[in-house]
Amino acid sequence: MDSLLLRSFPNINNASSLTTTGANFSRTKSFANIYHASSYVPNASWHNRKIQKEYNFLRFRWPSLNHHYKGIEGACTCKKCNIKFVVKATSEKSLESEPQAFDPKSILDSVKNSLDAFYRFSRPHTVIGTALSIISVSLLAVEKISDISPLFFTGVLEAVVAALFMNIYIVGLNQLSDVEIDKINKPYLPLASGEYSFETGVTIVASFSILSFWLGWVVGSWPLFWALFVSFVLGTAYSINVPLLRWKRFAVLAAMCILAVRAVIVQLAFFLHMQTHVYKRPPVFSRPLIFATAFMSFFSVVIALFKDIPDIEGDKVFGIQSFSVRLGQKPVFWTCVTLLEIAYGVALLVGAASPCLWSKIFTGLGHAVLASILWFHAKSVDLKSKASITSFYMFIWKLFYAEYLLIPFVR
After folding, report:
1. Which GO terms describe its cellular component (predicted)?
2. How far is CA 2 from CA 18, 76, 407, in A?
3. Beta-carbon neighbour count of residue 66 at 10 Å?
4. What pLDDT score was predicted for residue 49?
5. Dihedral over alpha carbons 66, 72, 73, 79 (to 10 degrees)
6. How many domains does the chain have?
7. Least enclosed by CB within 10 Å: which of 3, 175, 197, 355?
8. How far does the chain reach from its first CA to its final CA, in angstroms?
9. What is the per-residue pLDDT for 303?
10. Are residues 246 and 159 in the same domain?
11. What is the DSSP secondary-structure string of 209-245?
């Protein structure tokens, strides 16, 4: 029986016969090793199946190798031997060559992670601010209830989408230029954390800039197109690291870039987009528009100054001469708070001078409440804690959003 079994393995050359008398049991070990090695034949699933069948046959027809073999001619006596035949994982993998099961949860997690990375890359607080500001300024062009029409919503949508594309270009370019700084100041951003490669960032930034200009051109509104173009130029000059540019290194130039975009371009260009392109009316500079431009000039200066306060550590390392680096965090912090309080005081006077009762109430009461909340919150900030300062910076952006909710009531 043993000889029959051994002959069933074609690769066994030196173990063609095995007897329980007069044979050295070391041949049995050779047999086992040869069988073991035969399970590693690559890319031969038919051979693996053959080995599996022979192994099963051996297992059931030769139930035990646990015997005492005694040599008749004085050969050595082999102790009890336990021999196990094991099919390695490589054979099992080839035997079970079915494709991996579809895992919806894994795909869903991957999609969530991708969306989260893009959400952080787009700097959502700036996206929300851009969308709210355009909607608010567009409402200033509304003169009567009938102006709220599908034409109005179409004009607003065109402006918002084109501006958001440009917004993502600007904040994305800033991250591409500040990867090393962000590893210190904002390590959670996708480029700084390594979630996005530099090439991925370049692709996103280039794509959104092209989409923005394409949409502005297709719409055919010159105020909208020029708003996008000026934003593109100033955003590029602010961030890109080439000679004579990278204006963020210089505190005054950096503040002027942000003020020009947030206070002037957004207010005037998008108002004129609605006034001249959507409603086909002659350009006018109304009292509410002048107020919005002046108030947001204050607010833009505050944002330009305050955004550098929590980033002072990385800016010092890379030679960014912001006001926070030059003057210190505390003086800049209280300068920002003071400027905002002055702006709210002016807004109270504008509200009081309005000929409309409902404008007096909403404008006056709204700005009084915001001024009180600002002062109360500012007194609780720990200027030694980066987390506390960053939280207050996000609070300033919330005040920025709230202001655009009040601007349409200014009449």
Report:
1. chloroplast membrane
2. 6, 20, 97
3. 9
4. 55
5. 20
6. 2
7. 355
8. 107
9. 92
10. yes
11. HHHHHHHHHHHT-HHHHHHHHHHHHHHHHHH--STT-
